[in-house]
Amino acid sequence: MVRRNSTRGVSNGMIPLMLLQAAETYRRLDRKPPVTAALLAANTIIYLRPAFLSHLIPPIDDVWFNAYLILKHKDVKRLLLSAFYHLNEPHLFYNMTSLLWKGVQLENSMGSVEYASMVAALVGLSQGITLLLAKSLLFFDYERAYYNEYAVGFSGVLFAMKVVLNSRSDSYTSVHGIMVPAKHAAWAELIIIQLLVPGVSFLGHLGGILAGIVYVQLKGSSSGPSPLTNMVKGLTAVLGWPLRSLLGFWRPRQPRVSGRGRIGGGEPSRRDVWRCRACTFDNSGWLIECEMCGTEHGDDGLSSSQGSSVDDVSLDEIRQRRIQRFGR
Prior knowledge:
By secondary structure, the protein is mainly α. It has helices at residues 14-28, 34-48, 67-73, 76-81, 89-110, 112-136, 143-147, 155-166, 185-196, 202-221, 227-250, 315-326, and strands at residues 2-3, 151-152, 172-175, 178-181, 262-263, 273-275, 281-284. It has twelve helices and seven strands. The protein has a three-stranded antiparallel sheet, with no helix packed on it. It has a two-stranded antiparallel sheet with strand order 1-2. It has a two-stranded antiparallel sheet with strand order 3-4.
């Protein structure tokens, strides 16, 4: 995040360079992460704020992160939307380049649904923790530096993503030329950026690191997918229901075999069906003679052969009965 006293410069061609870099990265990938691409597009469109979307995208002056205004007016818009706004092209370029590198690794390793739920959680956690820190510092008389500070940017979420990405790493990494354990890279970057880059929001970056730690701890203490992941999956299922229904309507149905009876060697499965002792055809209980061969149903629940025993009925006689009954 950057503070308000940093000026918004004129266009210097960094956005086309960023888009070319993103396109080239995606071209080389076997699996294109859609959520990372959507985040890149959303941040870029919000920064450009084209005329046909100006009525949907608030101006930056309405969404600055300011703890005093958020708490005084209960302004949730400032709390959440400020993370997706950037002050100038270099601010957008460096944040989106970092998002591309971290997002591709995280989304391809954890899946798009889990990654989307993680990003949503990190946005809420980083912004909320930053707000709590700014309010807490009032007790130490730091209200001028932090409580009334204006800031925007996605870097708080990026610091949180860096913590998540390196949480299980035992290797070392370079932070501006200094080798540090990967698990502590976010802390080293927090200090170095604060010393080298004027106008950044220390509290916003610190809130992002703490948000990443909280997320890793909560994720490690629970088994299975997080509740937010289940919510995202449920929302996806609900939104996809009309499409699945439409596809199911046009999907060819399997042919059904229908009939009032069946021929088999097992016992009848229902009490309202009786089996012909001559041809083993299962008939409806409403019939008094076999539908297949014409043998009458006896009063004792067994079949009779019109005065002769069932055993005396030959296969040829059954065949002749079928010919007489059905003409074939």
